[in-house]
Amino acid sequence: MKTRFEPFISVIENFIDLTGRAVSWLILAMVLLICYDVAMRYLFNYGSVALQELEWHLFALVFLLGGAYTLRHDAHVRVDIFYQSRFVSDLGRAWISLLGTVIFLFPFCMMIVLTAWPFAENAFYYNEGSPDPGGLPYRFILKGAILVAFALIMLQGIADILKNLKIICNKESK
Questions:
Q1: pLDDT classification of 99: cutoffs 50, 70, 90
Q2: What one-character-per-residue DSSP string does 86-109 give?
């Protein structure tokens, strides 16, 4: 049954899929960069602080920005003792997901955004870079990605709430 929430759910999930596919290209870049770094280090005895920091930054971006995509495709870690039990119906799963999102996901994401905001703001204000000689400039981009990542997770959480409300309303109206 179509609901008035369907267009919102579709827009959010298409956007999250788009960001997830974009982030997946960072994995290829990271693998190529690591191969290059290892080859340069062991074959030519040449190492670079900037390359190693770039590897860490790419890994952090993949981990942070891939979270919403992981949540979208239900590939996140969940305690499945009850959720996947044969004793829990689809309606029960919808209630568990809805309550988990409202009680745990949103407060946690809000806490991260609110506490990371000044941290990222200072990094932008001071144009923060690496403290290491030869390190990367623009570390503030990575700190700003924390805010973006948790905003994306909250956005996917909104889509999940709407999907679960749709299931709950359809099951309870029958």
A1: very high
A2: TTS-HHHHHHHHHHHIIIIIHHHH
What is this structure's pTM?
0.89
3-state SS record for 21-82: HHHHHHHHHHHHHHHHHHHHHHHCCCCCHHHHHHHHHHHHHHHHHCHHHHHHCCCCCCCHHH
3 exposure class (CB count in 10 Å sphere: 0-12, 13-18, 19+): middle
Residue 60 has pLDDT above 90, yes or no: yes
Q: What is the mean pLDDT of residues 144-168?
A: 95
